[in-house]
């Protein structure tokens, strides 16, 4: 949905087939670095890497914006906060021995994957 506004060139809140085709052609042309009308594996990889880098930069900026309590533009250890392993330690440590075994970690990952799959099936975000 975040790309919608960029594709909707006449800004009428709707996408036509012509707008979608123009967007597809522009994306192809941008990826075709050598201008030969064909996309090589290297050109496709570069296109995907550029998209990933853009998304990562946006995510990183949001993370700093949300967690930078002292406003210095960087995150300290306390601002980074606990990771998911620490937040859910007691639940993941299913045998309550004070440690997470590889089997317990795999089980937690399996359960997380199943939850994401169910959210996706129900129309929820799977972030």
Layout of strands and helices, then pairs:
Elements: H1 4-7, H2 17-31, H3 41-67, H4 77-80, H5 84-87, H6 89-92, H7 102-121
Provide the descriptors you would attach to this structure in a database record:
0% strand, mainly alpha, elongated, 127 residues, 61% helix
Order of helices and strands: HHHHHHH
DSSP strand tally: 0
Number of helices: 7
Q: What structural class do helix, strand and pairing data support?
A: mainly alpha
Overall form: elongated
Q: What portion of residues is helical? A: 55-70%
* Biggest sheet descriptor: none
Uncertain segments are none
Output mean pLDDT. 87
Radius of gyration using CA atoms only: 22 Å
Query: What is the CA-CA span between the terminal residues?
Result: 15 Å
Strand fraction equals: under 5%
Description:
- The chain contains seven helices and no strands.
- It starts with a helix and ends in a 6-residue tail after the last helix.
- With 127 residues, it is an all-alpha fold.
- The protein has a domain at 82-127.
- Helices cover 61% and strands 0% of the residues.
Would you summarize the structure shown here?
With 127 residues, the protein is mostly helical. The mean pLDDT is 87.
